[in-house]
Amino acid sequence: MLIRSGELVGLLGANGAGKSTLVRLMAGLLKPSQGTVVWQGKDLASLSSTEKARGISYVSQSQFFPYALRVEEIVEMGRHPHRPVWGPLSSQERGICEKAMTLCDVLPFRNRWFHELSGGEKQRVLLASAIAQSPQALLLDEPTLSLDLAHQVSLFELIRKLHKEEGMTVVVATHELNLAGRYLDRLILLKEGKIIADGNSGKVLTPLLIRKTLNVEVEKLHYGKDLSIFVPKQKATRS
How many domains does the chain divide into? Predict the structure, then answer.
């Protein structure tokens, strides 16, 4: 599988399809049992952790910190690959962190303790830290987990903005078929670790392929010229 620089890609599939494993392989957190993960012409496994972090940012489904940290401190951790271990952040670096917090709507609670936040708030803080890392590629594993609908939409809109304005490569592992189909350019449908379909939403998101990979019958509803959504088919009821 080849992902080109600047692509906006969604990985779709049922639980256990291999989405998270694939994202972790791309991030260099797992080593492939066979073959090689290549980043900018180099074997990803040959790069140091700092070299990886300067190019690739990964946001997991959840994150645990063994000690209490404030939101702002979590976001500032994203700058570690680009600066000395010790010493305060420069005004430029603080500006980068504040921009990331603003984009992710966490600036208003920058001084709150991370462990006191809701699940959705924590996820947005982790995304802000990843953006502050100034990566060339952003890898997101179920980023809408614990987010309400408004923040789910905001996150996908943010992903498109980062892609468009920063030229960032973004790969999203997600269950959100409708949001992925609306906001992401290329979709890869997985089942049991294998690619079932790869292309734009019109090619990948069809009732037949969704039934084949997710084991659910859906129908496609059209709204206007450019918007369509998938909803589960209602089973016939007996009178």
Answer: 1
